[in-house]
Amino acid sequence: LETRRYEVLAHVAGGASSDSGIPSEAEYAQIRPFLLEVMPRERLYRRRMLMANDALDRRFQVMPPAVQARLGETLVGKALLLQHDHERLPVGLWYDAKVRPAQAGELGSTVLEASFYMARGSRSDGLIADLDAGVLRYGSLGFAYDKRICSVCQLDYYRCPHSPGEMTEDGEQVQLVWGGDLSRYESHEGSLVSLGCVRGAEMIRQGYREGDRMEGIEKIIARIDALEARHKPAAGDKDSLAADGQAYREHCLAELSRIGKLIGQESEAAALAQAFEGASVARILPVLQGYEKKLNEKFPVSPIGEQLTADEAERVVNYRRPVSL
Ligand SMILES: [Zn+2]
To answer: Which pLDDT score is estimated for 207?
Structure first.
């Protein structure tokens, strides 16, 4: 009954959540192996988060789906921390993580979706309130890895002469692709942070159902189209939303050309860019995501590059500490 009341309240409040974080029967079955005491579902709190994707992150890194999957399978049973602080006790536990195709509105072509739970009580009350209010919302994985491969010279980051994000003379952006030996990858924890390195790594609204989601996205697209029509970007008006939208669209078209070149479909990309002249971002993005997927297939996870000398290897070992995204 209590659950039902929350559901009704949440619905009236705008449908941000329909279950106040109480695990469903199926979710409880996934959590059950971790419990030392049998307790009712209502005493637990669980949420879903997007923790990784294969879009370019804030440090110009790209995580292929195979690495996402490996980090997902090693995350289950690990701690939910605050700000990667190992000195403090965990606030929750990750009980499920899986890679799935990105949905409309999400970056990249695949995402790692992970679920944590915590026990309700005085220690978690404040956290739960902040999570429900959307104040605590960003996520970040702490993990051990093997290497990051430069997209331009294919060498390990610590051996390559480039800086992530810089543009080469050929107009190619230097990006780092997580790669090497998958077995060296292991999630150590997943944290709630003020802002993570992965764009889009944040809480997933629990109340979403597929239908609601699609309807919501269609409304958002219609709203963007209406805004675009109303605010034609005035020349020099860099501050307006419309100008931002214009800049983002140009960015998408530039990305299309850049990735087209990387995957050897330069002329097709050029034709598409021309066809997309004046099209909305919503129409360009699915094609761009398809291109990003092909790019990932072209740079799969496998040892690439030369073997390190003993001297270099020793230097690299020092860098092979867990990182936080
Ligand atoms: Zn390089």
So the answer is: 46
